[in-house]
Specification:
Three copies of one chain form a homotrimer.
Chain A (H helix, E strand, L loop, with lengths): L6 H7 L6 E5 L4 H10 L3 E7 L16 E5 L9 H6 L2 E3 L3 H7 L1 H6 L9 H7 L1 H10 L7 E2 L9 E5 L8 E4 L2 H7 L6 E5 L4 E10 L7 E2 L2 E15 H4 L5 H6 L6 E8 L1 E2 L4 H19 L4 E9 L5 E7 L25 H15 L8
Parallel strand pairs in A: 1-2, 1-4, 2-3
Antiparallel strand pairs in A: 5-8, 6-7, 6-8, 9-11, 9-14, 10-11, 11-12, 14-15
Helix pairs in contact in A: 2-12, 6-7
Chain lengths: 356, 356, 356
Amino acid sequence: MVSGIDSAKLISDLDKDNITIATVCSHSSLQIFHGAKLEGFKTLGISVGEPPKYYDAFPLAKPDEFISIEKYSDLANISDELRKRNCVVVPHGSVVQYLGVDAFEEWNVLTFGNRLALRWESDRNLERKWLEGAGLKMPTEILDANDISGPVLVKYHGASGGRGYFIARSVAEFEENIQEGVKFTIQEYVLGTRYYIHYFYTPFSNDGYTVQNGNLEMLSADRRDESNIDEIYKLGSQEKLKSVGMYPSFVVTGNIPVILRESLVPRVLEMGANAIKGSFEKFGGMVGAFCLETVVTDQLDIRVFEISARIVAGTNPFPSGSPYSDFVAPGLSTGRRIAQELKRGIELDRLDEILS
Amino acid sequence: MVSGIDSAKLISDLDKDNITIATVCSHSSLQIFHGAKLEGFKTLGISVGEPPKYYDAFPLAKPDEFISIEKYSDLANISDELRKRNCVVVPHGSVVQYLGVDAFEEWNVLTFGNRLALRWESDRNLERKWLEGAGLKMPTEILDANDISGPVLVKYHGASGGRGYFIARSVAEFEENIQEGVKFTIQEYVLGTRYYIHYFYTPFSNDGYTVQNGNLEMLSADRRDESNIDEIYKLGSQEKLKSVGMYPSFVVTGNIPVILRESLVPRVLEMGANAIKGSFEKFGGMVGAFCLETVVTDQLDIRVFEISARIVAGTNPFPSGSPYSDFVAPGLSTGRRIAQELKRGIELDRLDEILS
Amino acid sequence: MVSGIDSAKLISDLDKDNITIATVCSHSSLQIFHGAKLEGFKTLGISVGEPPKYYDAFPLAKPDEFISIEKYSDLANISDELRKRNCVVVPHGSVVQYLGVDAFEEWNVLTFGNRLALRWESDRNLERKWLEGAGLKMPTEILDANDISGPVLVKYHGASGGRGYFIARSVAEFEENIQEGVKFTIQEYVLGTRYYIHYFYTPFSNDGYTVQNGNLEMLSADRRDESNIDEIYKLGSQEKLKSVGMYPSFVVTGNIPVILRESLVPRVLEMGANAIKGSFEKFGGMVGAFCLETVVTDQLDIRVFEISARIVAGTNPFPSGSPYSDFVAPGLSTGRRIAQELKRGIELDRLDEILS
């Protein structure tokens, strides 16, 4: 697997019988540790400051050990320590966000999945190239604000967790809301219900839904809860609210479980398959957990507005199975699936295909 | 059980030890096949075109065999084949929709449940006669559009999956939105939260919540996700949206799990019991899975706006149990409950009461 | 534990080997009985009128016996009978509501938890003293309606289940909506997503998330469904709806499962810990199940708008485990947790710490 570091050497240095699964204490770490423990792995939490107390409330998801760092940027400095402790790091959204993609790529420790995928997901141009190149339909990008002729989503660059988005329905509304001196992109606002679909791709089996000689699985789906957009409508019209200084915002605060109409599932799987195929064309393949963030219109068109090439927090409602993973193996979570894959890679001596 | 075909003969021709549970590959088929397999039945999927690949992603819900037809209307032509393969068909929403009620009634193959119930549910007049006759409160029907004096739901005939509905609050709004030359019905829009309640009625036990000498069970509840009504409010006022050509629509795209306030549950069960009693009065009884689609007002009145006399897709969030079915048997799904009932009918030699 | 009755005597009179868990037939009783039965307790339902039939549909949650009373106020008169039957009563929202806090405090029967906590939760002034004293952030109270300068929630006194609330955004809107001659409180309307967090506090272990020498657990989280506020937005602007006589209302009709962003969980546990600490300072400690009702703003601030010092109906989606309790013990419900605690108290001969 291609990456900025010599992963072949890291793999050969690994003591295969004593791997510790490590991740940063946040995001989906409860589920990752829980799954790792169920599969018999040792676990290590990386915390900023003191080892966090909250795991004490969740004994089956508490990591065996902790490494504490002072600030998130110190993540870059503990790769020696992580290697010494024989760790494989499962990168989730916070890991990548705190390290930054550049530092993540150069991070000299084994990580689960192909880390190039995280470069491609985090750059909006590469992401669009990857997904549209693979035949997925994304919301149209609008290059000139004067071309706004219907609802659009305006995203500020570097905005994360849902901050720094706004909706405008016309050039006038765009001009009323846009901040000066900040970079942004404008895209068509596709109206419909939102489904965040959690997939898993394994190169180790090809007896199921096969793609590129591996199997694609669909493990669950969720909807994000966003503050304040999911409650502001209760206060009456947005027009009136603006007059008292209240604006809609899109900060993710939680998740609810959902399932999709079964007639959409075949297309949802094809979309996952296409994302996988595109990843092999573009950067050697994405493996493990990933998520397509979709909107389903009232014409039952499915549009993808984002890809996450790693475990997403939307899998957190399902630590003990989901309405989809229960058809794969009863009680299976994405966190546990990751640990199973690592075990499988050890048994088959094919870790090079799933670590980078 | 009364139906257009000789079900007694079909039952006597059935090889009871080798029944295959069949259904059309859509709607709630994953759950139906999953439940059938858990109970040890062989399974057969009926697909339009090639056997669909999506089951490969869900090995525990994949049918053992497939029959492929070219187009849905060909369903009518495979009854010989289905009988030859010793099938009992579990009809779900897509089966009935694609065959049409008339053809479904004449379909010469054993189906789970009393197929007359599907005639009564699919005709809005019969449905109202059945439910109101049984004492269930439905939204008032408005026969003359000039009588609109508050929010109403206007439904076009033959509309399915939520397309072809709109809400109007006055005669003027009705006239602004109605399409010419299309048949419609107008009913009171009952404002409140929506609960789709999934029941099961068995004639084989009467040691529980007994109705008509059988047991009524309540297996789960869900809320439908509808595109675009469940997101359009984020864009601001509907009045303004209409000016950019965006109108609310009601196409079902998914489901979320819900539970009801416990103090409503006694009435919810009484409503199910009344629907059953009414079915025995009107057409010899409804058996197996059914669903009441309800609205709960802020006065805690419960109104029924529709009945589905078969498994609904809203049961799909619960393939491994629900907050209600777990009080009946841990991990029980509606799909599995259907398979259990079939097994029970074989053991008791009473298939005539549950098949038609 | 301090209370208006001699609980030490009640405990010494209790036949520890034959305890019956009793509660009123409503609210969260299915879950309480289900959990009690799983832990091997006998169960007794207190019904107003005939024993309700609805339990017959849920055999695993049906109480072994019933006591029937004519009207809720008769609850006060059956304490002798409940003691004779060797009962411990699990108080839920309906128990307290129907008895009234004064009568509940003098009710001469053992109840689970510290009944003083229910005094403190039910009086808005005491509740605020308790929570703000413990460092929890609540919405600001507005003492003079003329000070309204942004969205506020106006609550009528004694309103329960969500009736008797309204939202106003200005002095004018307040005056337009307020009923004459009714007592009310006004508080800041904190805009954000709502999470109802279900905790459990045990004095019997201190090997986990320790607070006051006991363990704090987080068992689940839900969102309330409210009629008609959760649907009224579909009809268009509230301004227009008022012209046809439709006003938003906030009556709880159900619950949906949710999870919180993991980075909020440490603070959520701290908030629970602070509520516990405050309870020990103010009234000898709250034990067992409790709930903080929170809003998460788009700045990821968490505000508490209410505490329930007992099992809440929001735990009902989770009779067989939740995304949080599964990290404590697979399949654990709050109802079962209560029964386990009672068992533990018997084994350790420390019932005085959990009953009052």
